[in-house]
Amino acid sequence: MQTKALILGPLFLLAGCWLCATRAFSTPSQETGKLKVHVEPKQAYVFVDGKAIRDGSQTIKLAPGNHNVSVYNYGFEPKTQNVHIDAHKKAELNIALQLSGDKVSGPFAEIEFKGDPRAAVLLNGQTPAYFVGHVDEFNWDWIWHQRLLVRPGSYQVTVTREGNTIWSGPVTAKAGQHLTVYLDNNGRTKTQGWKGGLAMGPQPRFKVGIASATIPIAPVSAQLSAQNNSLACGQSTSLNWNSMNAVDTSISGIGEVTAKGDRTVTPMHNMDYVLTAKGPGGEVTRTVKINDNTQPTATLALSEPEIHYHKVGDKVVEQDSATLNWSTSNANSATLQPFGSDSTSGSRTVTPDITQAQRGPVNQDINYTLTASNACGGSVTKTATLHVVGSIDPPPAITLASLFYPTAFPTKRHPDVGLVDSEKEVLTKLAKKFENYQQYDHQAQLMIVAHADIRASRAYNQALSERRAELVRDYLVLQGVPSDKIRTRAVGKDQQLDEKKVEALQSQDPEKPEKWETRRMRTTWLAYNRRADIILEPEGEASKIAYPNDVADARVLWELRRPNLKTVMTASAAQAGTEQASASR
């Protein structure tokens, strides 16, 4: 090309271009240093801080500081170095490039440029890596051939120098055509036939003579593959790729990559990975599809579909259980309701809580729901239903009987005397039954309501009925009934049974009353009102008012007059224990 320059124009024109290059990085007001660059091959092009300077070995004026110097020549491996420039000093670089790349096959089109001979020509990119040569290598095709050869296609051309764009625009090259671009005429193009491009054999990437040059631009090629195209959620696969003659290579979802390599990926949904390889010779995309199975699967089953349940009062006397078994696949989390988060597979013994409160048959379905999900957004739900049959029954019946007292007992002086043996026997049986009853009704209590007959004053009878209630309470505590399970109430003579009611109760008594009871009904009526009723709470069940006609001490309880103390104590042989309990209160 230098010989051609001597033929085509005076040397002073070349000198003028050289001065332009040195002025690009300094101004008269700046202190500058110099960089002397020697390049091999001699046609190699120099870029400083990403800006095209010119071709060949040269001395460049630069502002003091650090600079990035790159040397490019198509068909050679580029080199980049950092250099520090000091004011009024000269730095030197010797950069020799190494050949690279195989021959390039046609068919070809030829692109010729007319304009700034020292400007750099870039194809399909804006960075120095897209450099293919300078205009002086592609601006003559008469005696000497200076050819930029490209494969058929569209190209974005940028011609630049010293940070300025001389011209930029698209060109379409067709096989067997010669395309001339007039840079000094706003990129006007002229096309003519060139049959040589159709028959030209493979060309080396860079071939120059004294005033000739042939630079064929290699097309970009690329391959992309996946080790496994079908994955479960969370699984990984390896992407493998290879690109040739590319300057920039990237993969969607990954970013920029090297020209050749592999990468492990873990897609969380169906993914198209697109490899884009770009270079002076064009742009190629390759796509690989990864199908990510986002749907988990699950099973949930019960060992028994139906179990039995039986509750008496508050006590569950029969409650079967079942085993819940579950498993999942393609899932990394599982929730088993009503229990909450759990492992993705396992088993659990379930003993359901019965929500039914009312008494009667139990016929209830209990649902267990398994929800399995994964990080890919997939979810599946399975339900198993446990059928519960049985019943809720009331507590076992407890027989309550009213207690009766001799006239005027217990007295104020002897508050612990008055429960005769037959009544104590009734209370002893009640205490044992109540002990058993409490396991079925934890809220159960005994309410003792004490009465007095109508004789004497209201105040006297009120105090008398209070002593009667306390005497029953103390005896029950002595028999093991917790004190906090007993309440008392004294009503004195306010709530009397009338005589007709007593006659009716007597007539219903299966035990035949004594003659003295039937002949003196008023005395019998008064005897019925000297009593303490017992109420089972919260059931509200009241004791049966049944006068003890058949007991040995029935007459002591019945007599109208107050019996003497000895008679009552004889009828209360076990009274000493009660007295001890009272004394401890």
Salient structural properties:
six-stranded mixed β-sheet; Immunoglobulin-like; disordered N terminus; 585 residues; disordered C terminus; alpha+beta
Write up what this structure looks like.
- It is a single chain.
- With 585 residues, the chain is an alpha+beta fold.
- It folds into four domains: 1-102 and 110-216, Carboxypeptidase-like, regulatory domain (Immunoglobulin-like); 221-293, Sandwich (Immunoglobulin-like), CATH 2.60.40.10; 297-393, Immunoglobulins (Immunoglobulin-like); 403-583, OmpA-like domain (60s Ribosomal Protein L30, Chain: A, 2-Layer Sandwich), CATH 3.30.1330.
- The chain contains eleven helices and 41 strands.
- A hairpin with a 7-residue loop joins β11 and β12.
- α4 (421-437) crosses α5 and α5 (458-478) crosses α11.
- It is rod-shaped, with a radius of gyration of 57 Å.
- Residues 1-24 and 574-585 have low confidence and may be disordered.
Q: How would you name the CATH homologous superfamily of the largest domain?
A: Carboxypeptidase-like, regulatory domain
Question: What count of helical segments does DSSP give?
Answer: 11
Low-confidence segments, ≥5 residues, pLDDT <50?
1-24, 574-585
How many distinct beta strands?
Answer: 41
Biggest beta sheet attributes:
6 strands, mixed
Strand order of the largest sheet: 17-16-10-13-19-18
* Shape type: rod-shaped
CATH topology of the largest domain: Immunoglobulin-like
Q: Number of folding domains? A: 4
